[in-house]
Amino acid sequence: MDTAIESRTDPIVAVVGWSGSGKTTLLEYLIAQLAARGLRVNVIKHSHHDVLLEPPRKDSARLRMAGAAEVMLASPFRLSVVRELRGAAEPALSDLVARLAPADLTLVEGYKWEAVDKLEVYRPALGKPALFIEDANVVAVASDAPRPDTAPARLSWLDLNRPDQVLEWLAGVVAARS
Question: Does the model's pTM come out above 0.85?
Answer without folding.
Answer: yes
